[in-house]
Amino acid sequence: MINAGGSPEFDRSTLGTPAKYSFCFAEKKTEWTPLHVQRGLKENDNTFIVFASEGPSQIQNHKSLKGESILKTLADHMSSLGSLNMVSETEMAVVLGPEHYQHLFKEGWTKGTIQDFLYQNAARSVSELKKGGIIEDPIEQGDNQIFKYAVPSPQHILLMVAGGEAGRFSACMPGWFHFNQSKAVTSLIKA
To answer: Model-level pTM greater than 0.85?
Structure first.
């Protein structure tokens, strides 16, 4: 971290993670619009996106025959009680592995419909947050009707495809702190 511009005095993390500065991957070219184009750059631009996040958390679903079931598995993982995004409004990177992507694409899912589905389903009721110890207040009537979403909106899900061809795996990476303090930045690579 010191060599990458950090400082032992200012790096106050409890646990280290490769997401600090060394974790990187390339988005796979698919039939979907690439993330950098969604974020305002041109298709042929060479770009990079920097995103402060928790380390990647692998999600597996090898059995599902329906895309919706794959997405329910992702949504459940995105709304894990111990994740930073359940106590703060963050962006979240969701990386579909190629097998999950192919399955969803063949069923007609788009980036937009996936983002909408994940937003609606990656949520926990206040009752669940209290039972899980995230909120230390007594459970009240109606707490099971009030929900905390993993992200503030579908657009706060940075959805892309990456990874090796074999295996029905995907991953999610919740952002770090509130999205007003820490958000993904997209930039051109200048030659």
So the answer is: yes
